[in-house]
Amino acid sequence: MAGRKRYQNGWLCQKQRRDGMTWLLRYHLNKGGKRVENTISVGLVDDLPTASDAWCEVDRLGLREKINRVVIVDDSPTFGAVAWEWFDTEIKPERTDGDFGAVAHTTRKTYEGNLKRYILDEWSTKRLKEIRVPEIEEWLHRLHDKHKLAWTTISKIKWEMSLIFKCAQRRGLLRLEKEANPLFYARCHGSTDYKATIMTPTQIFALIRALEEPVRTLTFLIASTAARISEALGLKWGDLDFDAHIIRIERAFAGSKIGRTKNATSRGIVAMHPLLAKSLAGWRAQSMYSGPDDFVFPSTKLKGKKPLVGGMLVKTFLRPTAVKVGIISAEEKKRFGWHNLRHSAATFWSHAEKDVKLVQSALRHANPSTTLRLYAQTPEAELIAAQGRYIAEMAKLPKRVAKPSFQKLQRVNNGLGGEGKKRPQIIENKMVGTRRLELLTSTVSR
User: Fold this and answer.
1) Rounded CA separation 72/282 (Å)
2) What percent of the chain has pLDDT over 70?
3) Which of 440, 426, 430 is nearest to 395 (CA)?
4) Is 302 helix (H, G, I), strand (E, B) or coil?
């Protein structure tokens, strides 16, 4: 068995930081064979007034485990130690799209938030091999009942915890078998009741006409290309090729930071229709920032150094205008924003084009099942029309129908056929606009 290093608790100190006086946990670290000091931020003194409060926060965040992290193959470390090992070595470092574990900075921020707020609070001091499926399922239900988290959010937290177990498996701390990862068997509701508001082309046109620049061109761009708002805001004029009628998606703007797109598939070329090109060229002529390295939708307040903020544009312009043109009501609490334009385009293309690969390519989804399962919705009018076509097929006459003779029909109508016997009756069928005589069999008495 490999020997352990001396366990250290570290020590607390206070230091002035940009956000205010902050508690820091200091500890020793070996770098290049030398013993040096290092620090980890614990929290603001305003939130943690006493040292006792700060130590409680240290334990809640699993920082003692982090500073004593030792990877031992034939031992079972705590979940907190492996969790920080996974985050620090696989998630936190910046990577290119081709590297394993490359994630967008927004995903990295979400992982860290889930780790600190929910996962480590429950599992930090628990040994990996001691974690069982029933207690995981109980915890997932507590997240829903106590913390009021949506099941889709809980499903993502469960996935993150599973990634940590897989990290332990890759490092030889657990067997490379499904049975060694309890998250594989833990059940969780992954569905959602949310159904995006789908707009018709007429509604989208009315919405665009009612908006002012630059939000009008931004809305037209997203509506016609189904680009994500983060991708549209990350565009620079040099990414637009007006001669070739293409747009190159190279980056995304989210969380007040320019970074990589959602995934490698999201990066690529998007077609630019001549009408869209004309609209973009018109906006470029008006913009104060029209150079190749300038953002297409810059913030004038920040002197073009950063793009506009998507959430602010929804709150100030998009949603009020959607209420004004009658797409949604003012009292409606349902989510409505830029992504509804993407859902609307996916729904229209999936029913108009009848080509899943084309729609997948337009949306730049890595998996076509995502296109069909989450984005493409069927309008009720089309469902009713489909039912009508099906009913019309039901009402069609068979190719060969044995026609009863006139004498037999006369005997039936005269009541012949015997007591209690089955005899055919003639009825008129008017289903779906067709008229035909059918012979039904029923038991009747004279």
Assistant:
1) 63
2) 71
3) 430
4) coil
Return the structure tokens found at 328.
């949604």
Handedness of CA 250, 254, 256, 257 (dihedral sign): negative
Judged against a pLDDT cut of 70, whether residue 139 lies above it is answered with yes
Give the chain's count of helices (H) and strands (E). 18, 10
Tell me the pLDDT tens digit for each residue of 282-318: 999 999 999 999 999 999 999 999 999 999 999 999 9
Element (H, E) at 253: strand 252-254
On whether the CB atoms of residues 296 and 240 are closer than 8 A, the answer is yes
CB 166 within 8 A of CB 180: no
Establish whether the linkage from the previous residue to 214 is cis, with ω within 30° of 0. Answer: yes
d(CA 359, CA 364): 8
Identify which has the larger pLDDT, 276 or 193: 276
137 vs 224, residue with greater confidence: 137
| Residue 146 in tokens | 């106590």
Report which residue type is found at 385.
Answer: A
Residues 6+ apart with CB under 8 A from 109: 255
Q: What is the pLDDT of residue 436?
A: 36
pLDDT score, position 236: 96
Count the neighbouring beta carbons within 10 Å of the beta carbon of residue 211.
Answer: 20
Closest CA to 378 of 339, 353, 348, 358: 348
Domain definitions of the chain by residue range: 201-378, 406-443
Q: Does CATH place domain 201-378 in 3.40.190.10? A: no
CA distance 313 to 216: 11
Question: Read out DSSP for 100-145?
Answer: TT---HHHHHHHHHHIIIIIHHHHTTSBGGG--HHHHHHHHHHHHH
Q: Is the pLDDT of residue 38 over 60?
A: yes
CA distance 275 to 205: 13
**Cα–Cα distance, 300 to 308 (Å, whole number):** 8
What CA–CA distance (Å, rounded) separates 144 from 153? 9
CA-CA distances (angstroms) from residue 109 to 74, 95, 105, 256? 32, 15, 6, 12
Pairing of strands 436-443, 422-429: antiparallel
Give the pLDDT confidence score for residue 3 in this predicted structure: 38
Q: Which tokens in the block code for residue 103?
A: 């994630």
- pLDDT of 199-219, one tens digit each? 888 999 999 999 999 999 999
Neighbours of 64 (CB within 10 A): 21
CB 40 within 8 A of CB 25: yes
Residue 37 has pLDDT above 90, yes or no: no
Q: Using 50, 70 and 90 to split pLDDT, how confident is the model at 125?
A: confident
